[in-house]
Each structure stands twice: as structure tokens, then as C-alpha cells.
Design brief:
Two copies of one chain form a homodimer.
Chain A: E1 4-8, H1 13-24, E2 28-35, H2 42-54, E3 57-62, H3 85-90, H4 101-116, E4 120-122, H5 138-151, H6 153-156, E5 161-163, H7 171-181, H8 197-201, H9 210-222
Parallel strand pairs in A: 1-2, 1-4, 2-3, 4-5
Helix pairs in contact in A: 1-2, 1-7, 7-9
């Protein structure tokens, strides 16, 4: 019988690569997506396209964190803009950090994993070329893996683990890996700003937020073109 | 300035003691309660009474786990009944285990803690005289403490930790501690069955589920009377 995996699928580039990676490792994947009051829902539209394209199930959980605490949740706060990759890396935890987001998402994924008797939970987190989120670092993911292994029934039976295959990779290598796995990058959305109708129609991520900057750097260093910069989303 | 704590308050006896313990340690307490599809809502009514009685804030988060996976969520499944305390302790993880419940609750508590700049998260979990839940054991709580310490901003600043003061205590000692702290036990509900109107009106927890059995043992061994067995809830 094939192994089962829960894959945290945000609709961003990294989680898309994690999904295709798990599928390539022969897991039957069950994607888990969260509607948690993000500034925009383009990511969620992308998660649907990605999971459908990969032939996997997708479950979206609605979860409102009434205390906010992040510029990714509060449309009135300013997003970091125009920072260089090295500035992003050096400047500590940015305002886009959503308090304990991965801990919440992984906890819910662990519950889902117990219920459907999954063997692994995949997360596309990495800390190279990223925004300094504490819940994307290797030590954190290792600690959470231990939580799952000793704090769930499946874990205690040695049947459940947390997998974070992208953790040590640079963005360019994640993109190259995704390319080799056939990830449809045109169905991944990284821009924090989401998009006004005008921007989406014109097919333009903002190009200035940290996430756009890091994506652009990744594609450039990988020597690949980002299809989002050239195709129109509406035709996908 | 006084320290702040998030207290997971289910409305059961243990979390009530944890709340009064934290308050006694001079924390300003912010209680967090979950409406997650329990079989009954008496616990939640009790959480309101307890937090009001303790003069603390209470936030209730609604969270539905669509996959269920527990006899505590599914009214159609049978609850363990009539088991002796030693049977409960020896029989492994019972059907009342809710997959990864504490991991989800603690993750959300960590997010709340970040947002209000809390110093600690209190949980009343313990593993003596309890139901063998993997997410109530010391090793699990220590692992989650590490997740919080390295996976949150407050944790990295060494300003947030998980506190589980009841972990090594027998139920009788938790009850004695609660008594000394002035916990209103008549406002705590342990019975898994909740109660039909008839049972509540007659002021009777079922007396047969694991939770009733362990509570009864605790009060008996502590040499105290359980007020729930004598008072009418409606008059509280």
C-alpha cells in the first residue's frame, strides 16, 4: 500500500515544490491549505490549481487569529518594500512574520495525519534566501518533528514524521528542483501584496516586497524565467 | 510591570487549578478556551464561570476539525465506561484522545502569546492518574516548550516559555493544591458525557466515564468532597 502524506500547500513556490517532491517519492498526497485572513486570496486560488494539477486532494481550513500581529494579516500596516536580498537576510524577523503560524498549521496537519493514518507531513520551509522567520529554521522543524513523534499516536508507533526536504537549499536550487519535477510555476504566487485587479490582469506581482525580491533572485540565479512575469494569470 | 500568561482553560478541573496557580504566581492571566466540536458545551460554560470568578479575561476560539477521529468529538461512538483507574492507566491511548489536540491548542496559544507579549503559557496537563494521552506527557511538553522557545519571536528573546506545573502530580495532589488556592470545584466539569438536561438538573456527572472515575478517585484520595456531587449546577 502506498504511503500517505499531508502536504502544507500555501500556493507559494516552496510548498508547490514540496508537493511535487512528495509525489515524486510516491506518497499519496493530501494537501492542506489555510484561509487565515491573509491580505489576499490569490495564494489559495493557486493552491487549488496546484493540487488539481498534481491530481491530489486539497482541504482548506478556515482559521481566524483575532489577535493579528502581522503585516501579512493587517492590510493597514506597511509591508517591507524595496529591500535587497542581503538586507532581508540580515534584518531579523520582519513584520510579515505571522505569530506561530507554522506551529498552528503543523499541529492541525498532525491531527489530520492521525485521522487518515498518514506517514509523513511535508512542509516546504527553508531558511536560506528567506525572511528570517523563526518557524522556518531547521532547529525549529527538528523540534516540531519531535513533538509529532512523541505527542501523537502515529508518532509513538513510529509511523509519522515531519519532512522538510528543502530546508538547507538556496532558492535557486529549490527552483531548479521544482523545474525538474515539473512544478507549474505559473500556478505559484509569492507576492505578499497579492494583487489589485489591475496588477493581476497585467500579470504583475509587485516586484518590491521581500517575497518578490527573493523569488526574482532565485529565478535569476537558477538561470530560468519566471513564467509569472510573462503570462497572464487569467488564461491559466 | 506584572508578567502575563496565557492559560489553556478547558473548564475541567486540571486547567482550573493551573489558572489559579498562575494567578497565585502573580501573572495577569488571559484564558484561552476552544469550541472544537466537543460532545457537549458544559465545559465551556464552566470556563466562563471560572475565568469570571478569577477575574481574568477569556477568549474562546472556534475550531472545527473536520476529520474527527475521537469518541470525544463523535457523539455516535461509544465512550469507555466503567473502567477501573488501573485499567485506564494500563490500556494505552483511549478512544477519547483527540488527535494532536494539545499541539493545536498550544500553537494557537503561542500565537496569542506573541501578539499580547505574554511571558508564559500555562497548561494543566499531567500524566499521573490520567488517560494515557500522548500529548499530556512530560517529554511531549518539554518538546513543545522547545518549539516555543526557538520557533517564536518571544521565545527567541527568552521571554516565553511553556509552564506545566501539574505534570508530575497525582490527581489527589492536584485537588489539594486547587483547594489551597481556592479553586471553585463546583465550576469545573470533568465528565466526558457532559450531561443530558436530566443529568445536569439532577446534578450528576455520569460517574462511569474515565474522567469521572479519575476525578472520583482523586477526591476520595485527597479526603475531600466533590461539590459537584452534592450541589445543583443551576444554582451556581
Amino acid at each position: 500500500m502506498k504511503k500517505k502524506a499531508i502536504v502544507l500547500l500555501s500556493g507559494g513556490l516552496d510548498s508547490a515544490v514540496a508537493l511535487f517532491f512528495a509525489r515524486d517519492k510516491d506518497y499519496v498526497c493530501h494537501c492542506l491549505n489555510f484561509d487565515y485572513g491573509q491580505r489576499h486570496n490569490i495564494e489559495m486560488v493557486m493552491a487549488k490549481k496546484l493540487s488539481a494539477g498534481a491530481g491530489t486532494a486539497l482541504k482548506t481550513m478556515k482559521l481566524v487569529l483575532p489577535w493579528g500581529g502581522s503585516s501579512l494579516l493587517d492590510k493597514k500596516s506597511a509591508l517591507p518594500s524595496g529591500r535587497k536580498p542581503e538586507e532581508i537576510k540580515k534584518s531579523g524577523i520582519p513584520s510579515t512574520y505571522v505569530p506561530a503560524r507554522n506551529t498552528i498549521f503543523l499541529g492541525i496537519a498532525a491531527s489530520y495525519a492521525e485521522a487518515i493514518a498518514a506517514d509523513a507531513i511535508f512542509i516546504g520551509a527553508h531558511s536560506e534566501d528567506s525572511s528570517g522567520y523563526p518557524d522556518c529554521r531547521k532547529a525549529y522543524l527538528e523540534a516540531f518533528d519531535r513533538v509529532i513523534r512523541i505527542g501523537t499516536k502515529r508518532g509513538l508507533e513510529k509511523r509519522l514524521s515531519l519532512e522538510f526536504p528543502l530546508i538547507g537549499m538556496a532558492k535557486k536550487d529549490i527552483i531548479k528542483l521544482g523545474k525538474s519535477l515539473g512544478v507549474p510555476f505559473q500556478h505559484t504566487w509569492s507576492c505578499y501584496r497579492g494583487g489589485t485587479i489591475r496588477r493581476i490582469a497585467a500579470n504583475m506581482p509587485c516586484g518590491k516586497c521581500d517575497s518578490c525580491i527573493l523569488r526574482e533572485k532565485g529565478f535569476r540565479e537558477a538561470g530560468l524565467n519566471d513564467p509569472l512575469a510573462r503570462q497572464t494569470i487569467w488564461t491559466m
